[in-house]
UniProtKB/TrEMBL annotation:
Superkingdom in the source lineage: Bacteria
Protein's UniProt name: HTH cro/C1-type domain-containing protein
GO terms for MF: DNA binding
Length: 420
C-alpha cells in the first residue's frame, strides 16, 4: 500500500524518478494533465500550477497519490517503483483456472494500462515522422489486417500488435498534416481493437478501459463521431459489467449524444442493444424490452456501415435479444431468438457465447438439451479461447446444481477444457 513515507527518499521514489527523467515538477504536472484530458477523464486539478503543488506534497510525504493517479504517473515515469498494490493472499478462482487451461495469461494490468495511457501522454514527445499517402495506405491496411484476425488470432498477440500500431500511429500524428484525421482514425481503430481484446477476450477490464480511453482521444482528434460513440459504448460495457451502473449510464449518455442522428441506423441499433443488455443486468426489464424494440427498428433501415463496425448484424441482434430475454426470465422467447442467432453467426467466439446462453435457457426445463448445447459451447471455446463465453459457466452450473446433469457438465468440462 502506498504511504507518504514510501513516496520519498527511496530508490524508485517519485522525486528521484522525476529528477532522473529530467523533469521539473511543473513539467510533470503539465504532462499529467495532458494525459488525463487526452484520455477523456474529468477529475483532479484543472491547472498545472495546482497540480505542481500536489506533486510537491507527494514528494515531501505530506500526502500520497490515490490509486487513479498511478497509471498516469507510471506512463510518464516508467521506472517509478510499484508500491500501490497491497499484499493480499493469492487465491486462484475457478475462472482463473479455466483461463489458465488455455494459457490466456493476462498482461500485468498496471503495466499494460500505463502503456496504453502512456501512448497518449508521450505522443507529443515521441520522434516524429512524416507519413506519405502510400505509407498511410500501408498503415491503414495493417490496422485492417489486425482487425480481421480478431475472430481467429490469439488475443494477447493481436492486442500487442494493436498497441504497437497505436504507438506507430501516434508517432506520425504531429507531422501528418492534411492526413492527420485519417491517421488519427486508423490509430483509434487499433485502440478500439486492443480494448475489445483486453476486455472481452482476456477479461482484463482495467487494461481494456485504458486502451479505450486512448481510442476515444484519437477518434475525437480525427473528428469521427460514429467511432467515438462506439468507443464510449464499449466503456459503458466495461463499467456495467464491473457493477458500476452509474458509470455505465454516463458513458451511454455520452455515446448517445455523440452518435450521428442520421445515416448510421445499424450503429444506433447496436447502441440500443448495448443499453438493453446493461439494463437487463440490473433488473430494468421494461427499459431492456423497449431498447430491444428500438434496436429492431434500426435493423430494418438501410444506411452506411463503417469499416471498423464489423461485430454487429442481424444475427448479432438476435443474440442480444435472446440474451436480454434470458436475463429477464423469458426462457421460451430466449430459446427462439438464440436458436436463430446460432444459425447465422459465423464467429466461433460468438457462437460459443450463444450456445452457453441456449444451454442456460434450457437449464431448468430440459437439462438434457442444456448439456447438449453446453458441450457445443465448450467445444467451441476449446477451439477459440474467449473468456466472455467462459463467464457463462457459473450460471449454468448453478442452474443444474443438485441434478445428475451437474456431474455430466463437470465431466465434460474436464474432458474438453482439461480443467480440474
Amino acid at each position: 500500500m502506498v504511504t507518504s513515507a514510501t513516496i520519498r527518499g527511496m530508490p524508485g521514489g517519485l522525486r528521484e524518478t522525476r529528477t532522473a527523467a529530467g523533469l521539473t515538477q511543473m513539467q510533470l504536472a503539465e504532462r499529467l494533465l495532458a494525459a488525463i484530458r487526452a484520455a477523456g477523464e474529468d477529475w483532479g486539478p484543472t491547472r498545472a500550477e495546482n497540480l505542481q503543488g500536489q506533486i510537491a506534497r507527494w514528494e515531501t510525504g505530506r500526502s500520497a497519490p490515490s490509486a487513479r493517479w498511478w497509471p498516469y504517473l507510471r506512463a510518464l515515469l516508467p521506472d517509478l517503483a510499484d508500491r500501490d498494490t497491497p499484499l493480499v493472499e493469492s487465491k486462484m478462482t475457478r475462472r482463473d483456472f479455466l483461463a489458465g487451461a488455455f494459457a490466456i495469461t493476462a498482461l500485468s494490468a498496471s503495466a499494460a494500462t500505463a502503456r496504453s495511457l502512456g501512448l497518449v501522454a508521450s505522443s507529443a514527445l515521441a520522434p516524429t515522422r512524416t507519413l506519405g499517402s502510400a505509407e498511410l495506405a500501408d498503415f491503414q491496411d495493417r490496422v485492417r489486417s489486425a482487425a480481421k484476425r480478431y475472430a481467429s488470432g490469439i488475443p494477447q498477440w493481436i492486442e500487442a500488435e494493436a498497441v504497437n500500431l497505436l504507438a506507430e500511429g501516434m508517432s506520425c500524428l504531429p507531422n501528418a498534416g492534411a492526413r492527420r484525421a485519417d491517421v488519427a482514425v486508423a490509430t483509434a481503430w487499433a485502440g478500439l481493437l486492443a480494448g475489445r481484446l483486453a476486455f472481452f477476450d482476456r477479461g482484463d477490464p482495467a487494461t481494456g478501459d485504458a486502451h479505450l480511453a486512448t481510442a476515444a482521444a484519437l477518434a475525437q482528434n480525427g473528428g469521427d463521431a460514429p467511432l467515438l460513440a462506439a468507443v464510449f459504448a464499449h466503456r459503458a460495457f466495461v463499467a456495467g459489467f464491473g457493477g458500476d451502473s452509474r458509470g455505465a449510464a454516463a458513458w451511454l449518455r455520452r455515446s448517445d449524444v455523440t452518435a450521428p442522428r442520421r445515416g448510421q441506423p445499424l450503429l444506433r441499433s447496436w447502441l440500443h442493444c448495448t443499453r438493453a443488455e446493461l439494463a437487463a443486468r440490473v433488473g430494468e426489464r421494461d427499459t431492456a424490452a423497449k431498447e430491444i424494440r428500438s434496436a429492431a427498428d434500426g435493423m430494418s433501415r438501410a444506411g452506411d456501415v463503417p469499416e471498423w463496425f464489423d461485430w454487429y448484424d442481424e444475427s448479432r441482434f438476435e443474440s442480444f435479444a435472446g440474451s436480454v430475454a434470458l436475463s429477464v426470465g423469458k426462457h421460451t422467447q430466449a430459446i427462439d431468438r438464440l436458436a436463430v442467432a446460432l444459425e447465422g453467426i459465423t464467429s466461433v467466439k460468438q457462437q460459443a457465447v450463444v450456445a452457453f446462453d441456449l444451454a442456460l435457457a434450457y437449464g431448468n426445463d430440459a437439462p438434457e438439451l442444456a448439456i447438449e448445447h453446453a458441450i457445443e459451447a465448450l467445444t467451441l471455446v476449446r477451439e477459440r479461447q474467449y473468456l466472455t463465453a467462459l463467464d457463462r459457466l457459473p450460471a449454468l452450473e448453478g442452474a443444474l446444481a443438485g441434478t445428475s446433469w451437474a456431474k455430466e457438465l463437470r465431466r465434460r468440462e474436464r474432458e474438453l477444457l482439461a480443467a480440474g
